[in-house]
Write a structure and sequence with these properties.
Length: 460
């Protein structure tokens, strides 16, 4: 191949085989069929018509036919493969609309498929690509995704399971004698406090765990995009230095999300203390709830891509939040819709997996009438149900967030060009090196300013 400096190839290129030379001989043109020796000896010079032919409407080779009359006779040219064209009026296609010599049907042809070395095609992603890539992420790295999710689910579900068990145990007397409730026996307050406290503690723990787990699984996703695999130990080793930033991100995000809620609750309590009527309290509470819901959706959507930025781009807490905000800008409603759809799917799937175990737990606690053995069994069953549900739903949430981050970078920074270039090089090498993780740094984005490593798009 020519290097662009005037050197000629030592051998002709492969695509030039069996093709006629540009001007093989006198009287031939680039469109002359191979084997033609030029015009016959008795042919008149070009542009002249033999006497008597023009009146009969016959066409001379190399001269246009009269207006309104189709050309006749064999063609004076042939395509590069040397086969003559069919006569005028006959379709130049074979069976089923297939062009001769090309082996493909005529008409519209879809564009070529994008490179797909791993879990997603290396182009801007549609909703189906994101969901399909998330499932492939779990299937291609089951130990890293399901194993880490099971550990996180066990930690996050345990307080809720203990609170539920304490509540059912406190209801032992009422379960043994349901008629006592009609006689004026009070429902144990301690059990209700334990149940609500356990649920609240589980929500807080799960919020932090999901943020950290999203960061760790994003590291797994970063390698899976290229078709590579990563072990749990390697994912932990690559991510543990980012744990302080992930915890800080979860804490700051939680404060930003909960601060308006605390103000709303304080306002309602103040109105109640001031003697406001029930109707006013209900109306104000409803308006504040709707306003807070809109605020929570707005904030959570704009900060949804912060955890991948912390891990893959090694940014700080504030910088990663700004990064997520800038990536979501211009595509807020699309990102919000995908996140809401994911939450609905996750809730539905989690219910299918956990509800049967929770029903068995309730049956056990009623049959045991609040005994210690029934309490222990119920705690174990609740924990297993939470683990089974969360070990599937956590990776789905993390995968969708990570692929949304990837999609936004492709659309905003032409990052798909960087991924395609790297994938081609990895295919040539035959393996995915660990240095592929560095491609996620923003300096590798197409058109990024500043110095870039040699071999990446935009590098000198």
């Amino acid at each position: 191949m020519s290097d662009g400096h005037g050197s000629e190839p030592s051998t002709p290129p492969r695509w030039a085989e069996n093709q006629p030379p540009p001007y093989a001989g006198q009287g031939q043109t680039p469109w002359t069929a191979p084997g033609d020796s030029g015009p016959p000896a008795d042919a008149p010079p070009s542009g002249q018509v033999p006497a008597g032919q023009a009146a009969q409407g016959q066409v001379v080779p190399g001269q246009a036919p009269p207006y309104g009359q189709p050309p006749q006779g064999p063609p004076s040219y042939a395509p590069h493969d040397g086969r003559a064209q069919p006569p005028y009026g006959q379709a130049p296609y074979g069976p089923y609309g297939q062009a001769p010599g090309y082996g493909r049907p005529s008409g519209y042809h879809p564009p070529p498929q994008a490179l797909r070395p791993g879990i997603i095609p290396l182009r801007p992603l549609a909703l189906g690509d994101i969901l399909d890539g998330t499932i492939k992420l779990i299937r291609s790295n089951p130990k890293a995704t399901l194993g880490l999710s099971a550990i996180a689910a066990a930690i996050g579900t345990l307080p809720l399971a203990i609170g539920q068990a304490v509540y059912y145990r406190s209801m032992g007397d009422l379960l043994a004698n349901p008629s006592a409730l009609e006689s004026g026996s009070e429902v144990p307050v301690g059990g209700l406090v334990a149940q609500l406290g356990g649920a609240l503690l589980s929500l807080i723990i799960q919020f932090f765990l999901v943020t950290v787990l999203t960061g760790i699984l994003t590291r797994v996703l970063g390698r899976s995009v290229f078709g590579g695999r990563i072990t749990v130990g390697e994912a932990w080793r690559l991510t543990r230095s980012r744990l302080p930033a992930l915890f800080g991100l979860a804490l700051l995000t939680g404060l930003i999300a909960l601060a308006p809620l605390a103000v709303a609750v304080a306002l309602v309590v103040g109105l109640y203390a001031a003697g406001a009527g029930v109707g006013a309290l209900v109306g104000v509470s409803l308006l504040l709830a709707l306003a807070y819901l809109a605020y929570a959706l707005f904030i959570s959507t704009h900060l949804a891509l912060a955890a991948p930025a912390v891990v893959l781009e090694r940014r700080g807490v504030i910088d990663s939040m700004r990064r997520s905000w800038s990536l979501v800008r211009g595509s807020f409603w699309r990102v919000l819709g995908i996140l809401l759809l994911t939450q609905i799917m996750v809730g539905f799937l989690g219910g299918i997996l956990s509800v049967p175990i929770n029903i068995v737990s309730v049956v056990v606690i009623f049959a045991g009438q609040g005994s210690l053995a029934a309490t222990v069994i119920t705690t174990i069953l609740f924990t297993l149900g939470g683990i089974l549900s969360s070990m599937i739903t956590y990776p789905i949430q993390a995968g969708v967030n990570g692929l949304l981050y990837t999609d936004r970078r492709m659309r905003a920074e032409a990052f798909d060009l960087v991924l395609q270039t790297a994938a081609i090089e990895q295919q040539r090498q035959g393996w995915v090196p660990a240095t592929a993780d560095e491609l996620w740094h923003p300096s590798h984005a197409a058109g990024a300013a500043g110095p870039q490593p040699t071999g990446t798009p935009g590098a000198p």
